[in-house]
Write a structure and sequence with these properties.
Number of helices: 23
Order of helices and strands: HHHHHHHHHHEEHEHHEHEHHHEHHHHHH
Oligomer: single chain
Largest sheet: 2 strands, antiparallel
Shape: elongated
Distance between the termini: 59 Å
Strand order of the largest sheet: 1-2
Radius of gyration: 31 Å
Length: about 475
């Protein structure tokens, strides 16, 4: 198709191009409209095998092939069971499916204006030279609506895509767990509401996120992906009209389950996408956990709690040579936001269909790979940032040593135990909104009317030593 034809066929393009003979830019990583195929193409590349148009066509082909093979095993009067060589030929169409094959289907689609029908015609053409398959040709796509093929294909794609994202999430989880164990006992000043608070440890803070992420991963793994193969409105109407003696529901269930999906017996023309919504919600929750982590680490880097390992040749700022920016966590945060905007739209839109079918889900479903792609890019950026982190132990120790007021909590708690009146109020007057020195606090404790052993324990306490079970909890993640 020439450039002039492209422009002439679209009033919008015609208005944009003053020179209608100019050729459009070729599609490359540098000219791609989406950064998923451009700037971030390397990171998103694993998902091309899962969600691209080629991958979608291959998944559809797999469903069509398995449907035909399954039908032949029913030994219908007009469809004898296929010989092993014919079954191998059909499986070979899927296993050897190439970009050239996909181009042929797309060429057929330009005539049919229907992508699933194009797959059916392509299979018929590719098997016409084998007598057994040629005789079976009208049973390709037999009694199916397009959505019987598409929804199973989407289920297969989502199952594989989930595996790609889980691999990324598990890599992040493993690094968080490693950091939690490595720094389990390293004291760190906590900051509730941004203010100095009871100390924790670096490892415990990583452990908190690791445990949250582990739960989120479990929720993603636990979603059972549904599929249906029950005809135009979900009632096996055409199937029973042709072969009323066949238990079509049992047959469809067996085929769907053989592909590793769960059969949905009650649907309209489309599988209602509730399981998809559940998966997208679970992914969005995992993404929120990582977004929370990205922001916290950004702040801790700003406080000097962490340094970032330098990479030779990298530039932090075009004008300020000293800077080492937390760009990986910023990149992760931004892409998690994009991913969740899409995931939440998918989760809210897809389960809604007018009556037995409308087409609004079709165009939206073509963006599954986009939502997964931004998630995958974010996971890689977060992991890259985690690998660059170096703990600044001196900064952590200095921060703790300048926050003796945090020991007001244990002091007033021990005072409560021993019946000292108004302990909270006394410590509030001493510490609230003030920097309290070690000496001032020791002077206060020394004057308390409490048992000597309790007084000695408080006098021995330091901010760095006031970490409760943090180290133990960090090692348990």
């Amino acid at each position: 198709m020439g450039a002039s034809h492209v422009v002439a066929s679209s009033p919008v393009l015609a208005a944009l191009h003053s020179d209608v003979s100019a050729a459009p830019l070729p599609l490359t990583a540098l000219t791609a409209l989406s950064p998923l195929d451009g700037r971030y193409g390397r990171a998103a590349a694993p998902l091309r095998e899962v969600f691209s148009e080629y991958a979608f066509m291959r998944a559809r082909l797999r469903v069509e092939v398995e449907w035909l093979i399954g039908l032949a095993r029913l030994r219908l009067p007009e469809l004898p069971e296929l010989p092993a060589s014919s079954v191998a030929r059909l499986h070979g169409l899927v296993e050897q499916f190439s970009l050239a094959d996909c181009d042929q289907i797309k060429a057929i689609e330009r005539d049919t204006n229907h992508d699933v029908k194009a797959v059916e015609y392509w299979v018929k053409r590719r098997t016409a030279d084998e007598p057994e398959l040629a005789r079976a040709s009208e049973f390709i796509h037999f009694a199916c609506t397009s959505e019987d093929i598409n929804n199973v294909a989407h289920g297969l794609m989502l199952r594989e895509g989930r595996g790609v994202l889980l691999h990324g999430l598990r890599a992040v989880h493993a690094k968080l767990r490693e950091l939690a164990h490595t720094h389990a006992a390293l004291p760190m000043l906590a900051r509730t509401h941004g203010q100095p608070a009871s100390p924790t440890t670096v490892g415990k803070e990583f452990a908190n996120v690791a445990v949250r992420l582990e739960r989120a991963i479990g929720a993603i793994e636990g979603v059972r992906l549904l599929a249906k193969m029950n005809g135009a409105v979900g009632n096996f109407n055409a199937h029973l009209a042709a072969y009323p003696q066949v238990d079509w529901e049992r047959f469809a269930r067996g085929l769907v389950e053989s592909l590793g999906l769960q059969f949905n017996s009650h649907t309209i023309q489309i599988e209602p996408h509730d399981a998809m919504a559940e998966l997208f919600d679970a992914l969005a929750r995992a993404n929120v956990v990582l977004l929370d982590l990205d922001r916290d680490l950004w702040g801790y880097i700003a406080l000097g709690y962490f340094r970032q390992k330098l990479k030779e040749g990298e530039v932090g700022s075009s004008t300020m040579p000293h800077k080492v920016n937390p760009i990986d966590f910023e990149n992760s945060e931004g892409n998690l936001g994009l991913a969740n905007a899409l995931l939440r739209h998918l989760a809210e839109k897809l389960p809604v269909s007018r009556w037995q079918r409308d087409l609004t889900d079709s165009t939206v479903l073509r963006n599954l790979g986009v939502a997964f792609g931004y998630s995958l890019i974010a996971y890689e950026a977060c992991l890259r940032g985690l690998h660059k982190l170096e703990v600044n132990a001196a900064a952590l120790a200095a921060d703790l040593d300048n926050a003796w007021e945090v020991l007001a909590e244990p002091v007033q708690t021990v005072m409560r135990r021993h019946g000292v009146p108004e302990p909270y109020e006394k410590l509030k007057a001493l510490t609230r909104g003030k920097g309290i020195t070690r000496e001032a606090l020791r002077e206060f404790v020394a004057a308390l009317d409490i048992p000597p052993a309790a007084r000695d324990d408080l006098l021995a306490l330091t901010p760095a030593g006031y970490i409760g079970k943090a180290a133990e909890l960090a090692r348990r993640c």
